[in-house]
Write a structure and sequence with these properties.
This protein folds into two domains: about 40-190, Beta-Lactamase; about 265-495, PPM-type phosphatase domain (Phosphatase 2c, domain 1, 4-Layer Sandwich). The strands form four sheets. It has a six-stranded antiparallel sheet. The chain contains twelve helices and 18 strands. It has about 500 residues and is α+β, with helices and mostly antiparallel strands.
């Protein structure tokens, strides 16, 4: 043994290799220790990012008005004793359970509502086997209250049940007000066990491979390690660059939603003029190809339901074009007649999308239902492109047909839209809508809801106050859709004169 060691150290090459091996072991020990804490942080951030994504998904699927209804209907702790006592509570819980199952969470998802007068958070809907409705959330972390309006992540914190990682997202009502948050948790001890197991496994594999390569590929070990380090660095850089690109894309879409929301008129503004009205707007994606347009000007009220080609980002681009053109035609050019507005809108879309040559023209455009109401509520004009008007008077539904061609697209001759004039009577109800509600798949046989069923459902609702009609439309849509994906943007506008 001594002779072997003497030969190794007498030979310059083997001596260098031994010194390199010792140095490599020291460096590996340092870097593995250092990477342990780095990987621990990365794993924690991954868990927090997942929790935040789950919370944001849950927040988009929970209707704030329904939560408000529960807190108004059940004022005391213990009023809700089972998960099936109230249909609204049951539906909301089923949504949360579905999200929990899809994301394979071992902890519960729940909503929290803050009472400013008492300075306390109360549990709302949760996935527990037993309801915690109106139970006080003790020892809540301060960031939950600080970011109540915006949501966020909660780093490691302690309560009476242990240590946790959490994320939460705001839940808004139809007025855009934050009425609660949805919170998703991960047990910190489970996170540590999972992270350490994964990290130690990776460390063990790395050490074994390194030693194997060193003893059996000694002469080429140095170059292999350099290339491996470079490859690892490149992979990490590529991963970071890809994550950054994905985040930039998501940030861009979220910012586009802010812009689109800013362009859409506030529902409160609409209700200031049409006091008995609702706007049921449910985008399929973050941004929407369905949009509504409203203006009160020159003694008239203009309100439109518009369904653009596509959904998501392409649909949102079309909605921007449509909104700008309507504002130009009605506000700047001061055109008040419904059919002429649609004629001008068609021309504007054709010009904007360069649809003047058949071979080069795209098929992009929009369907629209436009109402022009005199401020004295005596007369109303209607014109439509593929979207009708549903008029309910004294319990009878009257469908006023639209013209069978869309706004936009190449035509040898420009279309001339039809003007419909209606004498308004007290109590008349009007509905304009896109095709998203009727086209939704669901039910026991996974079929479309269909336009006939939609009109019959609207007729059954028309005597209710408009805010109740809104809630019933939401419940019916959720009931029909079940666990199916939403297939299109949905927009329904109703108003009573």
């Amino acid at each position: 043994m001594g002779s072997l060691l003497r030969k190794i150290f007498q030979n310059h090459s083997t001596r260098v290799l031994v010194l390199l091996f010792i140095a490599m072991l020291v460096l590996i020990g340092y870097f593995l220790t250092h990477s342990y804490f780095i990987q621990l942080g990365i794993h924690k951030n991954k868990i927090l990012s997942k929790l935040e994504a789950v919370a944001n998904t849950a927040a988009t699927q929970i209707e704030g008005n329904q939560l408000s209804y529960l807190f108004e209907a059940y004022e005391n702790k213990g009023d809700i004793r089972t998960n099936y006592q109230d249909r609204v509570y049951q539906l909301l819980r089923e949504k949360l359970l579905k999200i929990k199952e899809q994301n394979k969470l071992t902890t519960e998802i729940y909503t929290l509502t803050y009472n400013r007068q008492l300075g306390a958070f109360y549990f709302g809907v949760c996935t527990n086997e037993s309801p915690l409705f109106r139970e006080v959330y003790d020892h809540f972390p301060g960031v939950l209250l600080e970011n109540y309006q915006s949501g966020g992540e909660i780093d490691v914190y302690q309560d009476k049940h242990g240590y946790w990682l959490s994320a939460f997202a705001p839940i808004k009502n139809s007025q855009g007000e934050v009425v609660a948050v949805v919170q998703v948790d991960s047990k910190f001890n489970e996170f540590l066990a999972e992270a350490r197991e994964e990290i130690f496994t990776n460390i063990g594999i790395s050490l074994f491979v390194t030693l194997f390569l060193f003893f059996f590929l000694a002469r080429s070990m140095r170059s292999i390690l350099i290339k491996e380090d470079q490859l690892t660095a490149d992979l990490i850089q590529s991963k970071l660059a890809l994550e950054q690109k994905n985040q930039e894309t998501l940030d861009s879409i979220l910012y586009a939603k802010k812009i689109q929301d800013a362009i859409l008129p506030l529902t409160t503004t609409v209700r200031e003029t049409l006091t008995e009205s609702f706007i049921f707007h449910l985008p399929r994606d973050i941004v929407s190809g369905d949009f509504y347009w409203f203006k009160r000007i020159r003694g008239k009220i203009f309100i439109a339901s518009v369904d653009c080609t596509g959904h998501g980002v392409p649909g949102a681009f079309m909605s921007m074009i449509g909104s700008i053109l309507l504002d130009d035609i009605i506000s700047k050019k001061q055109i008040d007649q419904a059919d002429i507005i649609l004629n001008k809108l068609h021309g504007g879309v054709v010009k904007a999308l360069k649809q003047t040559v058949r071979k080069k023209a795209s098929k992009d455009g929009m369907d629209i239902a436009l109402c022009v109401i005199d401020e004295d509520f005596q007369k109303m004009q209607f014109a439509g492109a593929f979207r009708p008007l549903l008029h309910i008077r004294e319990g009878h539904a009257i469908r006023i047909k639209s013209d069978p061609f869309p706004i936009g697209g190449f035509r040898s001759e420009a279309p001339m839209f039809t003007l419909h004039e209606i004498d308004i009577r007290k109590g008349d109800c009007f509905y304009i809508y896109s095709d998203g509600y009727a086209d939704q798949f669901g039910g026991d046989k996974d079929k479309k809801y269909m336009t006939k069923r939609f009109r019959e459902f609207i007729l059954s609702l028309h005597e209710f106050p408009m805010n109740e009609q809104y809630e019933k439309l939401q419940l019916e849509f959720d009931r029909w859709r079940g666990n199916k994906e939403q297939v299109d943007d949905v927009l329904v506008i109703g108003f009573r004169l």
